[in-house]
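Supplementary Methods S3. Complex input for the zinc ion-bound model.
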Amino acid sequence: MLIGTVTALLANYYWVTLDPGNWPCEKLLCKVRSRLRKTGQQVFVGDRVEVQEPDWEGGRGAIARILPRTSSLDRPAVANADQVLLVVSTQQPAFEPVVLSRFLNLVEYSGLKALVCINKVDLVDAKQEQEILARVNYWGYQGFAVSALEQRGFDALEAAFQGSITVLAGPSGVGKSSLLNRLCPGLTLRTGEVSDYMGKGKHTTRHVELFTLPKGGYVADTPGFSQLELSCDPQQVAHLFPEFRPYVADCRFRDCLHRDEPDCALRQANLERHEYYLDALKEAEQKWQIQSATADAESLEKVLSQASGNKAIPKLKSIHRAQSKRTERQKLAAHTGQIWVEEDADEED
Ligand SMILES: Nc1nc2c(ncn2[C@@H]2O[C@H](COP(=O)(O)OP(=O)(O)OP(=O)(O)O)[C@@H](O)[C@H]2O)c(=O)[nH]1
Ligand SMILES: [Mg+2]
Ligand SMILES: [Zn+2]
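Predicted complex, serialized as structure tokens:
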């Protein structure tokens, strides 16, 4: 049986890198067999697949089956990833703790392991580099200080990649593609100039692809998470901060939100990220409200339309809009180089 890993997508074709064996070629360009396509299952980069009918001369094949996934990320669409390496830079764009923290929350929520890479250490002195690293460690994460430009700090990073599928993510312009180009000699990913006076990068990476590292492991350069909004049960938010865990376990209230409850163990610990936690909590509460209100409204709409024999009834959705946290999200969006999209823009019906 021919098994391989999907390493790239091109319109309706997939590059499958075959597991080591005595094959005439390492990679096959494959279509998805119609039987599989009809099941509606989407093939992701990172998927382990069974290939049939190889045409070794033409380098073609057909994907017949997707093996069970160990994980799956939606945006970016990557299957079987083990970890996410969040890349940030010391300068250009400047290190923003609040933005890194939010990225970390999203990785925690995905259930994957998070690692942090601090790039462009050539732009700061050793003391500033140590300060950022110490902070990342204090938050409960392993950090790697590197310079893609000077090819510094690569050994530890390469060791962390071995045997895993790692997704690179992080704000635009921090040097993800530059880093990969240096790690994989021969690779020439497009890198962008850090454009304007705000030191923001331009979006240059647009599709997902897995690269095989010379020292082992696969890495995906991605266009980044398409949104930084947390949309989870407010009760879960505290669990997205590893350094909170001992205090959350100690808290004497079982369903404490660790906000203004008296004698809350987490609040008393006065941790650096408690402030970020409160923001994330507020946002999660708002999203959660909108979600349940929309669900309520939709079921109400359904009941009403059934009761009225499907006669037209007014839309209820728009009544339940919570206030948009416009400026805060604009800030997060600005720091990631994302294009800000007005939330209500397409709901004006
Ligand atoms: N000084 C310095 N500049 C760097 C370093 N690494 C990357 N750069 C520069 O930073 C800019 C952005 O790099 P990219 O690799 O395109 O950044 P990216 O994270 O892939 O950006 P997106 O694809 O938009 O997400 C380029 O001008 C690089 O030359 C570094 O270690 N030091
Ligand atoms: Mg890039
Ligand atoms: Zn508490």
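Residues 194-204, 310-328, 334-349 have pLDDT under 50 and may be disordered. The radius of gyration is 23 Å.
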